[in-house]
Prior knowledge:
Blueprint: H1 3-18, H2 24-35, H3 50-82, H4 87-105, H5 108-112, H6 116-138, H7 143-164, H8 167-187
Helix pairs in contact: 1-2, 3-4, 3-6, 4-6, 6-7, 7-8
Amino acid sequence: MAKEKKQIIIxxxxxxxxxxxxPEHYCDFLITLYAQGEDPDKFVKKETSTLxxxxxxxxxxxxxxxxxxxxxxxxxxxxMFLYKEYxxxxxxxxxxxxxxxxxxxxxxxxxxxxxxPFLYISxxxxxxxxxxxxxxxxxxxxxxxxxxxxVLNCSxxxxxxxxxxxxxxxxxxxxxxLMIIAFLILSL
Length: 188
């Protein structure tokens, strides 16, 4: 048997042993069998199985997507508040970015791979920032409208958390509403 195949098989068997997918003595027997009496460490350079490599790649992709989506959301937020001359353009850009996130999230393969929560969070953040931008641009001094917009955002988060069974949205919506209520009680 080729050395590469032995390396793959022995690393997989070690992964099985490490994660208790097979009894330990079976794994030891299989390692000895495939090593053909030689030192099994000679065949395996790293303790990485194919499944571990795939998981690491998926984790890297998730992190990169999370970082990219948060960067886009942050750039859109900063642009909405810094470019006062082009308020309409930045607002439209943020809306298009939000719709793009929404379209990406609705793809089944995207949801299946577990990337959806990152975009859900980015989309909620963008929606909050857009509502704050609308408030500052058109209703700057009206705190009643600001509280109404915040209640609307928190209610939307709570509703989304309950419908999609997303604990982080349920908690953030509930805490946001409780903080608004506490603010109203303390400001009386």
